[in-house]
Amino acid sequence: MSEKKEHKIVSASTGAQVSKKAAAASSQVAKKPAAPVGNATPLRIGAILLWLLAIGFEVLAVLVTFGKIDLKFMPTLWQMIAFLVLDLICLIIGSQLWKKANHIKPASEKNKAKFWLWNNMGLIVTVLAFVPFIILLLTNKNADKKMKVVGTVAAVIMLLIGGLASYDWNPVSKEQLDNYEKNITGNVYWTNSLGGKKFHLFEDCQSLNQTEELVIGSVAEAVAANRSGLCAFCARRDNRNVETGAYLDGSVETVVEAAETELETPEQETEQQETEQQEAPETEQQEAPEGETAEEEPAA
Predict the structure, then answer these.
(1) Which structural domain range is residue 299 located in?
(2) Per-residue pLDDT averaged across 18-27, rounded?
(3) pTM of the model as a whole
(4) In 10 A of CB 160, how many CB atoms?
């Protein structure tokens, strides 16, 4: 069995190294919900512009194939492939920006169809960016046979690559993010690895044993980094629901109230004792006349 690696913990907001003691304290302290991480609007605008550019390159590939334009410094076949490659590049970059925006400001999953379409807009654009070209090329009876075969194969391959890259394999909903931010009041951990999809409540989680560097930040920062789910090991260890982050034996509000009660300051305790002492003599004075009357009655 390989040895557990020592963790280097880095702040998501500043990039500075954080001590384990400070990280542990920030992961347990209750805090107000974090502000949204980044701005989704510029990312969406950038994605749309790149998608339009991708479709523009598809149009150029069609025009080259049908002999409408001809770049003299390059063979027609290579012109067609070059425009398809540029089409694919713009498509993939645009899709990544769109997915990033969806993790900063997720869509609601109340309407399942709309939620899927919104998260996989890049997949829809992929179809628009390659399928019309393939159809036009295959139905063109005057096209060169070699160009038709090479162009079709290249476009199909790029269609598959673009579809796989544009599909959101790890979507997150507004409801899911709201639940996590409500129920998890401290900072969380995650890795910088490309395959990481979960965030963690504990620095010493067993699934992080072979990780050298950890990032610590808010739940919103973790989701923006494409870590949209709570680690199952951490959820089981802290007795939480893995889907919402809520405690299984009570609400997070109950736990926070209990913690605040335990953290009551000595000044508050002293004030409460003084109030009780002031109320005690007043009570005795109110009871005294009744006692005197009770003693005078036998004398009469």
Answers:
(1) 264-300
(2) 72
(3) 0.70
(4) 12
